Amino acid sequence: MSFRDLRNFTEMMKALGYPRLISMENFRTPNFMLVSEVLLWLVKRYEPQTDIPPDVETEQDRVFFIKAVAQFMATKAHIKLNTKKLYQADGYAVKELLKITSVLYSAMNTKGMERTEVSEEDSSKFKFDLGSKVADLKAARQLASEITSKGASLYDLLGKEVELREARTESIARPLEINEAEKMMKIAIDNILEQVQKTNDMLNNVALDEANLEARIEKRKLELEISQKRLQTLQSVRPAFMDEYEKIEEELQKQYSSYIEKFHNLSCMEQLLDDHRRTEQEMFEEAANILHLMQNRLKEEEQNLLKSGNNDDSDMEIQEDEGSDTEGEERQTMKQRTAMETKVQGRSGKRIVGTMHGGDTEDDDSEDSEIDLDDDDDDEEDVEDDSMEISPRKSSRRARKPEPLEESDNDF
Length: 412
Description:
- By secondary structure, the protein is mainly alpha-helical.
- The chain contains 13 helices and no strands.
- It has helices at residues 3-16, 32-46, 59-77, 83-88, 91-118, 134-159, 161-173, 178-236, 242-311, 316-348, 362-390, 392-400, 405-411.
- Helix 1 packs across helix 5 and helix 9 runs antiparallel to helix 10.
C-alpha cells in the first residue's frame, strides 16, 4: 500500500460521486464492511441491473460475495481481481479497487471531454493564458503534497495520544521522591561525564592522527622531489647502447624490406611455375588424346583392309598382290605406331639397353651401351622417315606439342 494509491482512490471515488467520505486512515486496519460497500456500489455503478447478495455477516457469506464480484468483473469488464487481497480489506485491497475505479473514472473523463468539445466555442471567451503561472502551479502542488504528508503524520501522532495521556497522568499522579530523583540525576551526570571524556579522547586522538598524517605527507613530498630529480637526470643522460640500438634498428628495417621484396618475388615465381606446369599437363593430355585417336583410326583401317581382303577370293594372283599390299600397309601402320610411341617415350628420356650379366671391364660396358644407343637412334630415324612419308604434317605437329614434358619429368 502506498500513499499515492490511497490518494488517487479517494479522489476518484469523490469524482465518481460516492456518497460517503472515504478517509486515508480507513484502510490502515482491516475494514471488510467498507470494502464490501465500495465493491457493491462500484458494481451497481457499472451495471445497475446486477443482483449480488449484500450479506457479509458470516465467513461463508463474505467468501461468496468476493467470488461473485470477482466473477462479475472478469466476465463483464474483463478485469482480473485478486480475491485474497480483497478479503484482507486493508491497503492491499485498495490496489484491487483501483482497477475498477480507474476504468469508471477514465470513462467519465472521456465523456466529459466530448461535452467540453461541444461547448468549446461557447467557453472560448473565458480562456486565459496559464504559461506565466506554471511556477505557481508547481509550488502549489508541492505545498499540497507536503500538507497531506504532514497531516498524515499528525494524525498518527494524535492516534498515539490516548496511550501517551495515560502514561502522562500516571507519572504526574505518582508522588515525587527526592532520593530516587537524586539517584537518577547522578546517573545522568555520570553518563554525560563519560560522554565528555570519550569526546576529549577522540579529540586527542584526532590531533595525534593529524600530526602523523602531516609527517607522512612531508615524507612523501621529499620522496617525490628526489624521484623527480632522478627522472630529470635520467632523461638528460643518453644511454651508451643507444647508438648501437639505432644502427641495429636501421639494419633490421633494411632486412625487413628486402625480405618483403624476396617473399613477393618468390610468390610470383611459384605462381608462374604452377601456371607452366598446368600448361604442360594440358599439352601432355592433348598429345595422349591425339595418339589414342590415331591408334583407333589405324585399327579401323586395318579392320577395313582385312574385310576387303576376305571378300576378294576370285583370283589367286589378285589375292597375292592384295596380300602383299596389305602386308606392306600393315608394316607401315606398325612403323607409324612404333614411331609415335618412341617419340612420346623419347621425350621423357633416352633408353639404355644392356644385359643382366656384368662385363669384364668398364670400357667394354661403355662401348656396348654406346653401340646399343646408336642402334636405337638408327631404328628411330628409320621409323621417323617411314612415318614422315605417310603423314608429314600430322607427325610434325605431334612431335612439337609434347616437348615441354622433359622439363616436367626432370622436376620430379
